[in-house]
Amino acid sequence: MNLIALAIAPGLAICLFIFHRDAYNREPKLNLLLTFVLGALSILPAVFIETALSVNDNTISAVAVQAFFVVALTEELCKFSVLRFYSYPKKSFDEPLDGIVYGVMASMGFATVENILYVSKYASMGMGYQVAFMRMLLAVPAHATFGIVMGYFAGKAKFGNKGSVGLLVTGILAATILHGLYDFFLFLQGNPYVKDYVSDVLLFAGAVLSFFLAVRLSRRFIRQHRILSQKTFAPTEQMHIRKAYPADIRLIHSLAHKIWPATYSSILSIEQSNYMMEKMYSEEALEHDMKEGKEYILIYDGVEVVGFASYGWTAPGVTKLHRIYFLPQVQGKGFGKQTIERISAAVVKGGGHSLQLNVNRHNPAKGFYEKIGFSVIQEEDIDIGNGFFMNDYVMERKLI
Fold first, then answer.
1. Which of 82, 74, 80, 81 is CA-nearest to residue 32?
2. 40 and 149, same domain (yes or no)
3. Are 128 and 5 in contact (CB under 8 A)?
4. How far is the CA of 57 from the CAs of 53, 100, 206, in angstroms?
């Protein structure tokens, strides 16, 4: 009984690991369980095909055929059939990372049954625990890496613009090559022609090296798809804010020039837009703002700066959000809301009770501000010189 538990444990542990790596948009547990079960059942046709096609020849070429085609290709196709025909069409398969998640679940179902069979076989020879521990460290994780590689390409296939069949085939071939390479070195250990020239230790080292190659690829593929998942379902998770200093003026100036035209091209004339850019976002104007006590902050997505804001007290308990802008590619992803929440928290901590801002009366951002608790308290037409006016709503959000 302890041996069976030991045989089952690594597959379940890897399933839990990959489940928790899918942190931003987890799959339904029933779908994952059924994928695991179907993966376990897929060992039946694999055993039948491998038995029927087994090559009884000790030549190196025959060992290669056995490793790459009879075993690796057969097993990867059986696992792929679960991924492609059960998991792939599911509505819950809604991002590239899901290919990896379902690929691992199918592979772990297969590997768990295979592990039970191997451990039970060697237990009768008194080697059950040795085989269980060895397979826990190599064989079962190896199946996981093959599932990750196959699932990576399945995810790209479902959400790519073209070439889905080619990507699916690439996934099968990549998993088969890695699987076959691993098995090839292990199978050579029983080959009398090779053992005269190469020790079992070196052959085993070849299998281990092929396994580590698969692990390295798997880590990279998980990281790539996990970043996409984070950007899709939790874009602000890596957001952080820091205070801006005079040394950051050029950075703010550069950001303003990237953001301002896209924001106001349909609201202001080119002449007014250029005039306001020079008046408000020249390096001299920004330096003057900082000297006057306006707090500037920079907002980052990971290591990339994606926006800026400035605010300051205008009356007892009242803070004015003078400006808040983000690069077009991150607009609508929650950065604005999160930034305003953090500014609001800072205002309350400093004894403030309300946050105010001005927004152009034709700016659709007014709807966004209303959704997060701002309301219009008055209108203003501000003469900014050179014959231009800022036609704004003044909006306020009560904080306490």
1. 82
2. yes
3. no
4. 12, 36, 21
Number of domains within the chain: 2
Kindly list the strands in the beta sheet with 375-385, ordered across the sheet, starting from the edge strand earlier in the chain: 239-243, 295-301, 304-315, 318-326, 354-360, 388-398, 375-385
Shared-domain flag, residues 260 and 145: no
Quote the domain boundaries for residue 71: 2-233
pLDDT band at 198 (very low <50, low <70, confident <90, very high): low
What distances in angstroms separate CA 301 from CA 18, 239, 290, 362, one per listed residue?
25, 5, 24, 29
Cα distance between the two ends of the chain? 61
Regarding whether 158 and 253 lie in a shared domain, the answer is: no
Q: What pTM does this model have?
A: 0.71
Once rounded to an integer, what is the mean pLDDT over residues 293-319? 94
| Rounded-to-integer distance, Cα 36 and Cα 41, Å | 9
At 196 the pLDDT is 57
Specify burial of residue 66 (Cβ count, 10 A radius: 0-12, 13-18, 19+).
buried
* 185 in the same domain as 151: yes
pLDDT range class, residue 59, cuts 50, 70, 90: confident
184 and 265 fall within a common domain: no
CA angle 80, 84, 87 (to 5 degrees): 110
